[in-house]
Amino acid sequence: MDEIDAPDAAMAAEHENVSQETPFDRLEARIDALLERYEQLQSEHNVCGQKLAEREAHIRQLEAQLEDLEQQRLEVRGRLDALIDKLSRF
Known about the structure:
This protein has helices spanning about 1-20, 25-90. It is mostly helical.
């Protein structure tokens, strides 16, 4: 019979602990939860900052590549204009 009463006693003790929870205990629990969430958000912020820096570096690389391609296009256009000019002399 003691085995059956043991879970009931444990539940009663737990209920008593919960009911004896003071406002300071609740405040402490809320502060702990807030600090944990703050640390999560800080970590997410750092990850986002790192991703942003990587993407900005990729954008700079693409802009440099675009500039090189534009320069090549201008060179090709100049050479084609020169060839067309040579052909038009005939």
